[in-house]
């Protein structure tokens, strides 16, 4: 996770997006306001956002996150924005998100795991700044920005190319962070997200194969070792992961 912006804690009627709050959940102080050039997001919510009742979030709040994430332009690394529960699984499924524009409701595609797919970046909507609603209970959600590494085709990869993917992601983070890149810890792992929980594996093919099992959430964390990258064994996955996140 690059950063997450926590959302307010009160419960609220369904069909409203949680209200932003000043609190932030950031993995380590050094990640505040750095990766992806998202410094403007790592601060208190605007007075406008704080003043809203009913658990609704202004379009501008999400626009800021999605447009900054869109600044990542790399063939093998992309930034994804996810609406996630702070306590585990989403409270309501499927997750829905609707922009209440004057011209009529605009449905935003949200994947099963909460990835916001087609949030419209529009100067007209930004000027109007309509409210955005979701079916998640107020206080249960947060916006996350992650970097996703784009795997080559197939189920087998060289360890070296996975190491290079991590290097590419690190370079992109530093590029987006600018002057703040000196404060930024280097990512060390790739998380293979299979979903489904616990059945998939990632195997490093050596004289004695190292088999990594998925956790309860269906994820396998592969910590990249530069010495092992020089050896360059094959890494085989039992199934194609839905995504690979930089950690």
From TrEMBL:
Q: Which InterPro entries match?
A: DUF2987 (IPR021370)
One Pfam family recorded for the sequence: DUF2987
Looking at the record's lineage, which domain of life comes first? Answer: Bacteria
Q: What is this protein called?
A: Uncharacterized protein
